[in-house]
Specification:
Elements lengths: L31 E3 L4 E3 L2 E3 L1 E6 L9 H10 L4 E5 L2 H4 L14 H10 L3 E7 L13 H4 L11 H20 L10 E6 L11 H16 L7 E4 L9 E6 L15 E5 L16 H13 L4 E8 L33 H14 L1 H6 L2 E5 L4 E7 L5 E7 L6 E5 L2 E5 L3 E5 L7 E2 L7 E10 L16 E5 L10 E4 L4 H5 L5 E10 L5 H4 L4 E6 L3 E6 L2 E7 L7 E6 L5 E10 L17 E9 L2 E4 L4 E6 L2 H4 L14 E3 L9 E7 L8 E4 L6 E5 L2 E6 L35 E4 L9 E7 L9 E15 L16 E5 L6 E10 L18 H9 L4 E5 L16 E8 L1
Parallel strand pairs: 4-5, 4-11, 5-6, 6-7, 7-8, 8-9, 9-10, 10-11
Antiparallel strand pairs: 1-2, 2-3, 12-13, 13-14, 14-17, 15-16, 17-18, 19-38, 20-31, 20-32, 21-30, 22-27, 22-30, 23-26, 23-28, 24-25, 24-27, 28-29, 32-37, 33-36, 33-38, 34-35, 34-37, 38-42, 39-41, 40-42
């Protein structure tokens, strides 16, 4: 898309408002202000629950479904960063197509009747490559990022203005009748400001002033920026923000990032955050006066191509979020939080129009009561004890509180939700393997239908060398992130009388590197691979190597795995070799660090665009009856049919080594089935107590990422061009497509569980909800019992008490529906069964 020019501020007034459900605020807001309690939209206080969905981390075909799932989950607002490096790949060259079609994404949010928080930044961090700032900006003379630096401020203001004007042109700001109610400038700069001295302080003031000058008509925020100047609102990012206070008493308490999970790094464990703890943190925030809350992430998505940062951030950005990487609600987390949102919304009027009264109920038990003279009353009762259940007396009524939990009482009497009691349905998700099906036809005359074709790269310089240098260069400064790859070549002469040639004791290679990874070749043969890890990029490495008498050709393929995405002066963090030595030769240590090295940027296959079906006539691929295994530097191509069905799709790459993959020219991303350490994982996670990213790890000894999301919209029925570049060797015959399929849907609820099936409080009425993934329906029931069923999902059994009509009743209410609600009432079940016993309903269903 061409550059968008400046436009004047357009102030529009819509006549009338959208009529929305209880989960959505008015999309045609004309006036957004705030005070110490909340945002005020068109004169009405709003308690807002927001969900982060990053448009480039999914695809346009998924956006409507993601927004719909968020809304159904009780969310009012969608939040997203704006990704500068995706929109301005080179100076003045703008792109807003495909996954980067920001206006289309905002319009989908608007059409869903939802509001939007636009975090322009334009620095985002976000585990995104280079923190979202274009790499080219680092090479503009005199530029220093995120400080009082004229070149940086010039380009930052240009891009911010570009985005603001684009939103104005589409009338997307609330002041114009659009959905955008807040904008953000900068991001978590408070952590690093002091490192920049006076320049940091001046930059903060400048960024705020620049943002305010955009005249958007909506408030601006800065997160984790304790000196944000009035009227810019400082907000909180953390696992818990109940104790957070804004910088000024005139500002509302806003939580911009509640992390419901955590990201993964190649070679790291798989982190999880329990639904109970997420709900506890949210409830405590609203209990203590919060009014705007955002999940980061609600849908994490995928770091397609080379967009992940870190370094070592995985291609998957699933984040253990309420909506998984593939766009499916994650149960029970999605459902548990949906019930939490319902409960909080029942308290909205009391929370926003009254001041709380703190009531101490024990040493670690307390209630915050919001009440006025009209009788409006809501209470949150918290048990902060992270080990023990407690029973407390509140207003002459006894309440039992699980450890580390909050009970919500919208009428100050009846508990409708407790954060530790999860009764949401549980979904068992399987990855169903599908053999790659060769297409019988190909839409491209240059592509051979069926079978495999390969192209093998030479280890070392291809074509003309880019340059020769004594010693090593910085990898990033050399490639400028146009590729992950940089070749280094030299030679080493070995005397025929070397002792190791006779006794078989191999010399040892010693390498030091600033990161991130490398493959070491001698005479065209891969000898060793090495890398840093998810927390440390620099590494030292040693390995025995095979050398022959005479001249040995040394080739080292240095690699980046995503660039630094945050930190003080992070743009100056380098990568690449710093030392190469051999030991075990008769002359002692042979140091090649300062010898003459010849360099080549990138791969020949990248230069030839082998991943692009429209450019495949640039090279002649070799047809093979079976693709070679364990062969490094090999490009593989297959023409395949789409997997059957309409479920989300992934590639199983566990039998491959490391590399990149594409489908029909679309970048799936980096694959690397690197295994996690074998320790510090848990079989079961205790939700009680403060969470940290290492508390509830799984996946020890397993590949951090085995499956790689391939969006359904990228497929054609047949003739799909699957291309992979394998760096160090694998077995492509073991590659499979996988369909992400729900195999079991379970739910249970006891008759004493407080429940509400509408926006109204229902006393003494429990209910069970079932919901299938999009485009599927409840097709069968494997188990149904009302009474005293035992066991857990996929192992339920009928207990001593059982209503024989329960199956037929549930089938009548739910069969062939995408979702249903079953109430535990006398009308539906024989509630007189087994008097004196607490009865419950347990269900296991199948969706298809």
């Amino acid at each position: 898309m061409a550059s968008v020019g400046c436009t004047l501020l357009l102030c529009w007034c819509f006549v009338g408002l959208y009529i929305l459900s209880y989960t959505a605020a008015a999309a045609a807001a004309n006036n957004v202000t705030y005070d110490s309690r909340s945002l005020i939209i068109n004169g009405e206080r709003k308690l807002l629950i927001s969900a982060a969905i990053h448009y480039p981390r999914s695809v346009p075909a998924m956006w409507p479904g993601l927004v719909k799932a968020a809304k159904e989950g009780g969310v009012d607002v969608i939040e997203t960063y704006v990704f500068w490096n995706g929109h301005e790949p080179s100076p003045g060259n703008y792109y807003f197509g495909g996954r980067y079609d920001l206006p289309k994404f905002v319009k989908i949010v608007q059409d869903a009747g939802m509001l939007l928080i636009l975090r322009i930044g334009p620095f985002v961090a976000a585990e995104w490559n280079f923190g979202g700032i274009p790499v080219w900006l680092h090479y503009v003379p005199g530029t220093v990022f995120r400080t009082d630096n004229e070149p940086f401020k010039h380009y930052m203001q240009n891009f911010t203005t570009l985005i603001v004007n684009m939103m104005k042109k589409e009338k997307f700001f609330a002041s114009q009748g659009g959905p955008i109610i807040l904008s953000q400038v900068e991001n978590e700069y408070g952590y690093y400001e002091t490192a920049y001295g006076e320049g940091g302080k001046a930059y903060t003031q400048w960024a705020a002033k620049m943002a305010l000058s955009q005249n958007t008509g909506v408030p601006w925020i800065m997160c984790q920026q304790w000196d944000a100047p009035d009227p810019v609102i400082n907000t909180c990012n953390s696992f818990y923000c109940d104790d957070f206070k804004p910088s000024y008493p005139t500002m509302p308490k806003i939580w911009t990032e509640n992390w419901p999970g955590w990201f993964k790094t190649f070679g790291g464990r798989d982190p999880h955050r329990p639904a109970e703890d997420v709900a506890y943190a949210v409830a405590r925030f609203f209990q203590k006066g919060g009014s705007v809350h955002n999940y980061y992430m609600y849908h994490g998505g995928t770091n397609f191509g080379r967009t992940s940062g870190g370094p070592f951030i995985t291609t998957s950005y699933d984040y253990d979020a309420p909506i998984d990487e593939y766009g499916l609600p994650r149960f029970p987390k999605w459902g548990h939080l949906k019930e939490l949102h319902r409960a909080i919304k029942l308290c909205e009027h009391a929370l926003l129009n009254n001041k709380p009264t703190l009531v101490h109920l024990g040493s670690q038990q307390e209630a915050d009561v919001y009440e006025d003279e009209s009788g409006s009353c809501a209470a949150f009762i918290a048990n902060l004890d992270d080990k023990n259940e407690k029973t407390v007396q509140f207003r002459n009524v006894s309440y039992t509180l699980p450890a580390w939990s909050v009970s919500i009482l919208p009428d100050c009497k009846n508990v409708v939700f407790n954060t530790a009691k999860v009764v949401s349905q549980i979904a068992t998700i399987d990855m169903v393997p599908e053999q790659l099906q060769p297409s019988t036809s190909s839409p491209h005359k240059d592509l051979k239908a069926g079978g495999w074709e390969i192209y093998v790269e030479k280890a070392g310089i291809w074509g003309e060398a880019d340059f020769t240098r004594s010693g090593f260069v910085d990898h990033i400064n050399t490639t400028k992130d146009t590729t992950d790859y940089l070749w280094h070549t030299t030679s080493l002469f070995v005397d025929k009388n070397e002792e190791f040639l006779k006794n078989g004791n191999k010399p040892r290679l010693f390498i030091e590197s600033k990161g991130h990874a490398l493959h070491f070749f001698v005479n065209g043969i891969l000898q060793a691979s090495a890398s840093g890890n998810g927390t440390v990029s620099p590494f030292n490495f040693t390995s025995p190597v095979s050398l022959k008498a005479g001249k040995n050709e040394i080739a080292i393929l240095s690699m980046t795995v995503g660039l630094q995405n945050a930190g003080s002066f992070y743009e100056w963090v380098g990568a690449g070799l710093t030392s190469v030595k051999f030991k075990g030769l008769k002359d002692g240590t042979v140091d090649l660090s300062n010898t003459t090295w010849t360099y080549k940027i990138g791969l020949e296959g990248e230069h030839l665009s082998l991943y692009n079906a429209d450019a495949l006539n640039n090279v002649k691929w070799k047809s093979v009856s079976e693709p070679p295994k364990n062969q490094p530097l090999t490009w593989y191509k297959a023409i395949v049919d789409a997997p059957p069905g309409n479920e989300p799709v992934a590639l199983d790459m566990v039998h491959m080594g490391k590399g990149l993959a594409w489908l029909n020219g679309e970048q799936i991303g980096r694959y690397w089935p690197r295994k996690a350490p074998t320790d510090k994982c848990v079989k079961a996670c205790d939700y009680r107590g403060k969470f940290n990213p290492d508390k509830c790890n799984t996946g020890c000894g397993e590949p951090t990422q085995r499956w790689y999301h391939v969006p359904r919209s990228w497929f054609k029925p047949s003739g799909n061009v699957l291309v992979m570049f394998e760096e160090k060797g694998g077995d492509p015959t073991q590659i499979r497509f996988l369909r992400r399929k729900l195999s079991a849907l379970c739910a249970h609820v006891s008759e004493d569980h407080p429940s509400f099936v509408t926006n109204n409080l229902h006393k003494n009425k429990a209910s069970l909800e079932l919901k299938c993934p999009m485009n599927t329906y409840i097709s069968a029931f494997k188990f149904v019992s009302y009474g005293t069923p035992t066991g857990t999902c996929q192992s339920y059994a009928i207990g001593d008490c059982h209503d024989p009509d329960s199956r037929s009743l549930v089938q009548k209410l739910c069969l062939n529906k995408s979702e249903c609600i079953v109430e535990l009432t006398e009308k539906n079940f024989k509630t007189e069964l087994c008097p004196g016993m607490m009865k419950k309903l347990a269900v296991e269903a199948t969706c298809s």
